[in-house]
Batch of 2 targets.
Target 1
Amino acid sequence: MASLAHAIRSFQSGDLTPNDFFAEIDQVLATDQANAGRMLAILNEEHTNYPLPPDVYVEVQRRIENRDQVKWTASSEETRLQTNAGNHAKAAPPTSSEQSGGAPEPIKGVGDTLNGRFVLEECLGFGGMGMVFRALDLRKLEAADRNPYIAIKVLNVQFRGHPKSLIALQREAKKAQALAHPNIVTVYDFDRDGAMVYLTMEYLSGNPLSQLLRTEGFKGMPYAEALPIISGMSKALAYAHERGFVHCDFKPANVFLTASGDVKVIDFGIARLIPKPEEEVEATVFDPGSLGGMTPAYASPEMLEHGEPDPRDDIYALACITYELLSGHHPFDRLPANQARGKRMRPERPSGLGRRQWQALRAALSFERGTRTPTVARFIHGMSGERPAGAHLVGAGAALLLAVLVAATIAHYQPFANHQGGEPTTAAPQTPLATVQPTATPGVATPASVASILASVPCSLLRASERDNTLLVRGYLPRYFGIPRLKEMLSAAPGVSHLNLDVRQVSDDDCGVITALAPYWSRNQEDGSATSIRPRGRNAELSEGDSLILDITTPPYDAYVNVDYYVLDGSVVHLLPSPRAKDNQTPPSYAATLGSLGNWIVSKPFGSELIVLLVTPVPLFDGIRPEHESRSNYLEAIEKRLGQIASKYGPEHITADFVLLTTKPKP
């Protein structure tokens, strides 16, 4: 026969959903003859060993009390338990109403309304801080919004009694708003209704991953089906880690699979900033870790031993979930990591998992932080079963671009954006700049008049060809010259009946880049563009909040890849190689994707800047250059070095390609 203790342990181990748990509690209460006092003692004992979510604890207590119609007041001998970071039980501080002698304020539930605006319609689940509801936003409903529903987290009674509860919610809202990523739930705001404090966020339609894992008969998911879920979780954690946050309670219940197939990580409620000893820390900084809260089955040994938070804590949890997703069971039978380590438990390789993937998963499951996979990027690259996207290019630094650009930020510069105000205007130079001769597709004639016109455009990279009686011109020209002027000149040229232009305008400040690399771009075009760099996005345009993903290809010989970001402030940021990612060698005809973890997010200000891919047969420089430097100094250095390489290996082994990336505000 089921017992109260058994039901609690089953819920704590994840074998029961909240709904199933309360159904079993009701069955126990209907059949067990023990009195309320005995049941409360059992509840407190189990809660002390493995703390229940506060609202679950309060609800079980309420049902026990109501069964025997026992009236418990603030002056009774009842002890409401709460755990601190050390898991030592203690009495929860009284709420303001209890301090004044009044009855404790009831928990908000289904049917209640917050601030006369949000109607709580359905309880979606429990978290370490409170209960989450689907709520109808009456203001949205009045405005005929197509989707008037949001999710609301209402702080539980015990947490609300914590003297810093409002600070906690405010901090959670602030950091959650900072974690704007497609795989992280969107948080809107926080507010209060009397003593009730709550958080509003996007409403997700779907189910938590925990529900899938606890489905009766679930024996694991095929690798190919599981990989998108693993990737989605990894992207969310990698993004948070890049911004200095550790989730600290990553578990299947905090991963949501939406009806549209997206993966969303929720509840960064107890996330703590990654410690940064070099930074000053204010004495008044609120540490949500002091409120306790972790799930033993997914907590790393360091978390269980109350060590400082580290991204590798999340990686351990991510690996446990991944193992469970692939095999159908927890790698250590849901034992806390320190106990599993004491028993020298070793997980078996899941059926159907390749050797490379198993090596990656096993490393992430290490009980020792020092030998555990250091970054989420390394983990997902290993789990992909293929050469990591840009493995020779970015090494372990999957978030290289973001880290480098942040380190190189000066004045108003932000990653993947221009100076405020969009495209600058510059007067035409007094003296002619570089002129690049046009090239034509082999075997296809280009009118001499066209060649003459293209050659007259200063600071340009222009390629002409003919197809089906249409003149095709693609490339780059300076903004001051303008596309309309080029179109007018070409349309008037003898022999041109139909014209098609695929030309981008660059800043006049980019003329130095074009001058230095024009021969290598032209040769690359003549050879069929074996060297290429392309952003994911229509017409190389990205909007605020989009992820920047770059696809690159290399020529059919061993090569070294250099990716540089030319900033409008006159500097150049070296994305690859750099002090953070030194290995940039590739095999012949190599294809890679940079930024595939979704860590590079477009933000304001917006505009256009050049990203250049330069491929050489030997390292461009003997050592690693600074992360960012003066553009003029760098261009002078590469012109000299490219001349040396061309002299020894031949200019045909140097190729280049450009991306003019344009960013704009969210529509």
Note: Residues 69-104, 276-292, 386-445 have pLDDT under 50 and may be disordered.
Target 2
Amino acid sequence: MDKVNRFHRKPPALNKGQIVYALRLLLLLAGAVMLVEVLGFLLFSSNTFQDDFLGKLIHTLLTVILVFPVLYFASYRPLLREIDQRMQAENSLKLSQEQTEQRVVERTSELVASNQALQAQIAVRKEIEGQLEVERQRLFNVLNVLPAIVYLKAPDYTIRFANDRFREYFGDPQGNLCYRLVQEQDQPCAFCPRYTVLDEHASVAWESTLPDGKIFQFYDYPFVDVDGQEMMLQLGIDITERKQAQIELEQRNRELQLISQSEHQQRQLAESLVQATLALNSSLEPEQVLDLVLEQIRTVIPSTASAVLLLNGDMAYLARSRGVPGNPLGLQRLEAGVPLQSLPQMWRTCQERRSLLVTDAELASEWESLPGLDWIHSAILAPLDTGEQMLGALILVSDQPDFFQHDHLELLRAFAPHAVLALQNARLFDEIQTNRTRLQALSRRLVEIQENERRLIARELHDEASQALTSIKVGLRVLAHRAQEPAAVQLGVDEMNRIVDSVMDALHRLAIDLRPASLDYLGLVTALQQYTQSIAQTHSLNVQFESLGMEERLPLEMETALYRIIQEALTNVARHAQAQRADVLLQRYADKIVVVVEDDGKGFEPVAMQTTGRLGLFGMQERVEMLGGRLTIESQPGCGTTIFVEVPHGA
């Protein structure tokens, strides 16, 4: 509005330039008059002429003629020019004034609209601020009812805000330092995460025990206040009761864990004993049984070394050992045998028939250290007692004193009867093995006779039947040429030919089943190739045969036995396994021949199958045992069957 009123004021007074111009005009006018008067005086100096009317008229005309041009060119014309310029300036000024007034009006309207919008914004902002105040109050109410202490901490450790729970617990902060009010310390806490939270802008969770013994879980978060200052929001939850419950729970868990460990140890002991029993009964070879005994002991009881000492009258000898470094002289003596009385601890164990614990060999008066075994510092011994006879003792030793405890002694004592049973079985097996060797020799002879008979029958069937059928076929061919009714005779001849071919094929297969000629003349590999191809075509079975290292032929009896074993295995696959595929591997190593027959059939339970008394499996087992080998059958329902045969054979 000031700009509008400015253009409606009265014109201002003459400025300095206008005053100078007016004075110059007056001076020119006065100078012109004076000039005219001087000229009139000079030209018309007589009084007569001056008084004459004509003189006055001339004087006047002269004045006008002289003064007017001077005034016109000296003053009026510049004045007109200046007036014209001033009028143009006034018009321009007026136009500018009108434009300015228009802009003022428009700007005024804009300002009014802006003012109205600003007023509306102010109203909205006031409304928002009111809502924010409500929300802020609501937030404060929420913070006040939280079951946690909440406060804002500035970088200088001053508390800027605290909720009611904080005030109830610590009192009114009043800008106090947090470490003084909360931790009751004169210096900032060493564990305070201030630098991590504010400098690295990372939240932190931590626990702290307050001076009154309360345990709090704190959560610190970086926070920027409304004034832009970085602060730290800290929440603290009293977890004292939870911690106490946790401690009680941990204590209870430890107790339960001890109970569980005890039960687990007992269960593990029982399972270990069961596994040990199964493992010990998995072999009846004396040497293997001794190895299994020591192996199973080491799985149950830790030790540096273990040994089995057996008795032979009054002598004790080392039957097996594990973990003894090198071959010290003392070990060699034990392997050769030493008097039982020279081993006081062993003698005591066998005489008293009870287990013995030696915690420190250097302190034991009855401990006898053998050469090269002076590193033994503790030991446990358990007798191998059948009840009727003392077989020997199990011994575990350690290079550390006080290594074994009574629990270890009890474990060894519990394991000893299983070892005794395994050793007894091994001894009985050794006796049976001797008798069985004689039986196998007899069976081998019977099998040889049987094979000779089969070879003779195969030769007779092949030679005689084949020749007879060939003669029949030749006669029928002649008959076909001489018959009076060619069509009918030809049909009969064709039928006879078909029958004859079938008989020949049957006789040929019978001969192969009895004794394939290729086995005698071409060897085991060729015979098996022919047989696998034949059984694959006959039973629609995908049979893959592979031989490795079989460039040289084996002894005839071994080739025959291996052929019959593989023949029986594939026959079982074709008849019973319901398989789609069978793989046969024949491989020669430096000291043995390995046969593997594997199928993808329905499988079976080997233990249950053995009780059925099937002659096929029994025959395979007998043939393998005749060769001094081992037969292993791996199978279970739905997973196919794999047969492993290992037969010793020197290079």
Note: The longest strand covers residues 215-224.
